[in-house]
Write a structure and sequence with these properties.
Helix content: 25-40%
Shape: elongated
Bound molecules: zinc ion
Strand content: 15-25%
CATH class of one domain: Alpha Beta
CATH superfamily of one domain: SUI1-like domain
Largest sheet: 4 strands, antiparallel
Structural class: alpha+beta
CATH architecture of one domain: 2-Layer Sandwich
Strand order of the largest sheet: 1-2-4-3
CATH topology of one domain: Translation Initiation Factor Eif1
């Protein structure tokens, strides 16, 4: 017997919930903000926690990819520095659909 998806009630091999959740991540907004003393911060907003799994490790992967520091703030991820291009690249490689 295969495992049944709790969301849609279909067997896990044919359900598309995880893919749907990732596609929905096309809605992740990436912006760059200039903070005090001219410091740049790359902010990821509108993250659906269901599609990233664990926020802590998701943030860690991004920090490793961009080789920078960062924090999780109120459901958003803030990375130190200007990393817009790298973040988009990384999210695409993780299977997220990105706009632009
Ligand atoms: Zn499902």
């Amino acid at each position: 017997m295969s495992e049944i998806c709790k969301t849609c009630g279909l067997p896990k091999e044919i359900c598309g919930c995880e893919n749907i959740a990732k596609e929905y991540q096309g809605e992740i907004r990436i912006s760059v903000d200039k903070r005090r003393y001219g410091k740049m911060v790359t902010i990821l907003e509108n993250i659906d926690p269901d599609s990233v799994g664990d926020m802590e490790s998701f943030a860690k992967e991004l920090k490793t990819h961009c080789a920078c520091g960062g924090t999780i703030k109120g459901g958003n991820i803030e990375l130190q520095g200007f990393h817009k291009k790298k973040v988009v690249e990384k999210l695409r490689s993780m299977g997220f659909t990105m706009g632009q």
